[in-house]
Amino acid sequence: MRLRVDLLPREELVYPDVVLVVDVIRATTTAACFLEAGAEALYLVPSLEAARAFKDEDVVLAGEAGGLRPSGFDLGNSPREALEAPVGGKVVVMATTNGTKAAHLAGMTAKHVLLASLFNAHAAARKALELATEEVAILCAGKEGRVGLDDVYTAGVLAEYLGLMREVEPDDGARIALAVRRAHPDPLEALSLSAAALALKGVGLEADIPFCAQVAKSAQVPLLSGRVGEALIFKRG
Amino acid sequence: MRLRVDLLPREELVYPDVVLVVDVIRATTTAACFLEAGAEALYLVPSLEAARAFKDEDVVLAGEAGGLRPSGFDLGNSPREALEAPVGGKVVVMATTNGTKAAHLAGMTAKHVLLASLFNAHAAARKALELATEEVAILCAGKEGRVGLDDVYTAGVLAEYLGLMREVEPDDGARIALAVRRAHPDPLEALSLSAAALALKGVGLEADIPFCAQVAKSAQVPLLSGRVGEALIFKRG
Ligand SMILES: [Ca+2]
Ligand SMILES: [Ca+2]
Ligand SMILES: [Ca+2]
C-alpha cells in the first residue's frame, strides 16, 4: 500500500484512491464530535454566507469568525461544545475555510474522502485501509496556504497507525510527517507550538488545544457521501 | 529574527528579506562546487533550450536530461564533476528545473537570494544572518510540486545553525524542518531515503548522494546578483 502525505492542498494534486483530510485545529476534530453527539450528517461549506443559505429550523449552523460563534449561528467550531450539542438526528452545517477547501480538492478526484484528526485517528486509519486498494493519502489542510505543524503532526500519527496495521511504502511527505511525530512524543506539545494553537490562545479558546490533542478517543469517521450546492455532505463512514 | 521555512515554492509567497533556496540533490550543491572550482558566475536557467542560447567558447554549459549530460553540453549536474571542472574565471550556465524555479520565485520579492545546500550550510546560514534585518526564509525546491525529504532535511540543518547563531522565532515550517533534522542524525540516511536519491540511483549516479550529504565543507555561497534573459546570475556572496 502506498502511503502519501501532502503537506498542503494544491490544485494540481490527483488522488486515485482514499484521502484522509486533516484540519486538526479544529474542523476535523469538531466534525467527529458532532457525529459523536448524534448528528445525522455534516455539511461542510467554505464560508459563513454559504452556511446561512442552509438556515432552517431542523438545521444547526456551526461556524466561527475569529474563532468565535458568528451572529445568527447556533454554535461555534469548538469540539468541546460540539460533543455536548443537541444535534441528535440533525444536519449540522459547518463553515470552515481550510478544512472545506482541502476536502473539496480531495473530492474532485478521490474515490473516498474521510475527515481525520487525532481524536479519531485510529478509527480513521483503519477505515482508510478498509476502503483503499492501492494508496492512502493524507492531505493536511494548513492555514491559508501555510503548512501547519498541527496538521503535519496529526498526519504523522495517522501514518504511524497505518504502518502498524499494514506494510506501507511512505513517500517523502509521509517520512516528514513521521519524523515530526517522532520528534514530539507528547501530542499536546506539538499542537501547542503550532500557529493554529497560538491563534486560538489569542481569542481565549486555549482549552480546545488539549481537547484536540487527545488521541483515538472516537470511532466516528466522517465520510464524503455527496454534495448539495457549495456543501460537501459527510456521513458516518 | 523570524525564521521561516517554506516546504514548497508557491506563486503567492512574498519574501520581505533574505531567502536561502535549497535544492540539495543536486543543483544548489553543484552551484557551490562550481564556485569552489573558480567559476566567475553561475547563470541558472530553467531548461536545456535556455542554456543552449548562451553557448559560446567562454561559457561552460552544465545540465542534465534524466540525470545525465545532455548532448551539446560540457558537463552534467554532478557536484563531484563540478568540483574538478576547468571553469576558472568562466561563466557556468546551469540548466536545472526545480532549483531555478524556486530561485526565480524568491527573486521576485526578496532583497537577497542565496543558494544553500548541506555542503555550504554553515557559510550560507552565516551569510543569511549577515544580510537579514527581520527574516531569514528557507525555500525548499522540491520536485515538480512534491515536497522533498532531502530539501526539508537540509532546511532543518540550516535552521539549526541559524538557531545556534541567533535567537530566532521559528514558524511551523521551520519546526517541521527541525524535527526532520532531529529524526535523522546522519545526513546520508535522510538524503538516501528521498525520492530524489532514488531517482539518482536509477541512473547510476548514487555516488552523488554521499557527496551531497557532506555538511559545511564549503564557504562558497552563491548570491543572486542580476538577470539576463531567462537566466538568474549568481556570484560569490
Ligand atoms: Ca486548522
Ligand atoms: Ca492547521
Ligand atoms: Ca532536487
Automatic annotation (TrEMBL), chains A, B:
Gene3D superfamilies: ComB-like (3.90.1560.10)
Pfam families documented for this protein: 2-ph_phosp (PF04029)
Keyword set includes Hydrolase: yes
Reaction(s) this enzyme catalyzes, per UniProt: (2R)-O-phospho-3-sulfolactate + H2O = (2R)-3-sulfolactate + phosphate
InterPro entries: ComB-like, ComB-like_sf
Transmembrane portions of the chain: none
Enzyme Commission number, as recorded: 3.1.3.71
Keywords, in A-Z order: Hydrolase, Magnesium
Molecular functions (GO terms): 2-phosphosulfolactate phosphatase activity; magnesium ion binding; sulfopyruvate decarboxylase activity
Keyword Magnesium: yes
Cofactor: Mg(2+)
PANTHER family for this protein: 2-PHOSPHOSULFOLACTATE PHOSPHATASE-RELATED
Family: Belongs to the ComB family.
Protein name: Probable 2-phosphosulfolactate phosphatase
